[in-house]
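User: Fold this, then the next.

Assistant: Folding the first:
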Amino acid sequence: MRVLVLNGPNLNRLGKREKEAYGTFTLEELEQDLVEFSYHHHIELICRQSNHEGELIDWIHGAGDEGLSGIVLNAGAYTHTSIAIRDAIAAIEVPVIEVHISNVHKREEFRHHSYISPVTIGQIVGFGQDVYKLALQALILKQERG
């Protein structure tokens, strides 16, 4: 099983920004934790982060072309603004799970709408860095059940 974990804009600032919403862990710590988790679940993990919409879209397209088992996507603010990322997800066969570290439904009104949710297989929010592991577990279950 090969899974792409994509983090969008400003997630490279984890541990430095809005600690009350996002916690004190860094992106590097998060990725290391996920790599260890994935190793124990026989998942080959590819972690990427970009502040650039087009680069995220290219990686989404690439996941479709490479036949990856799934994508765990935290699109950050692009969740609420990017029809282009929504269309990129719709253009591939790879299952995508949308994740958010904070509970976006308890935050500002503009964060309540997701352009990408309708084209993902699910959304996991509000459980801190564990949202990524929960998404990986969901992809494992999906693969086991066919």
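Now the next one, as you asked:
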Amino acid sequence: MLGITTRRVIVQTRPYYRQRCLATLAQEVLRDETFHIPVVSFSKFRKAKSSAEKEQTANEVVTAFKEVGFVYLKDHGISPEVIDNAFKQSAEFFKLPMEEKMKIPWDDPRANRGYVARGRERVTQETDPVKIAKMRASAPDAKESMEIGRDWDATWKNKWPQDSLVPKFRPTFLDFFQTCHELHVDVMRSIATGLELEENFFDDKIHEQYHNLRLLNYPSIRTELLRAEGQARAGAHSDYGTLTFVFQDSVGGLEVQNPHTKQYHPATPIPGTIVVNVGDLLARWSNDVFRSTLHRVVSPSKSLLPPDAEMTPSRQSIAFFCNPNGGANISCLPHCLGTTGAKYPAVTTQDYIVSRLSETYS
């Protein structure tokens, strides 16, 4: 089981899984009754014995990103032991006294590194700084985080806690960062295959590892506060890069918006899977062929948290935000122009991400 808790996860099976008709995913997601995030086994792509096996998995991934913007990826190649250790070391960091964590504060959107105290970030689709400030004051995100980038960056250095306090923290997340990057390369190769591009099309556009690894701690909170109007552990938002890998514990609370009906649905934790979603830059790259879907973190669903629970338990997650190279020019892929042409002007990765981070942090 992913994460650091011992709570048992019960994944409810909806009737339409048992009596699956011939409807396509595109038809199923039109209605909330049949909306779901597909589960895709990635082993056939990673260990393919033929191009046909690779193409089959690639098509499943691409279809999920076209219709939902999200997928549960299983058989992804990152061992449970590696993930469990990452959760353990993350938890050890967040247990540190506040004065120790505040010695390594997040202080520059260009760096995007360091500790972010509860209330500093308010993720949202809003871009007006005045409105965001009001939202932050009235309904701040109920979380704290630790941001880690590529460790060899010549300009922006990672901020690490003292090794004597958490001796395994730095080596754990240096390795985990690299492991996630390698999976990112494989998933982008599957996307290229599904779009009928050369399999290695994205390789030289993501090799600089301009990514962000975010450790997240959502402290226990009174349920009535979390369920109040406008309150959330993380407000509704899209992500900024190509893909996001979300490693969940068993508590739950992640919800995904149905792009067609605008209703939110739980992304219930499924042991052994990573939740993978499309970010804004991949949506722009693909001319919205892929969906950068809104999502949020709220009170867990009734199947995971009784409706009369006074307290919502603490939650841990780890998000790996995959990005193109900082100077990569993100403009519409030729295969995605369609009949109307490019929807978005070209933008560089760094300009877009720094702009979005500047808007959401105080």
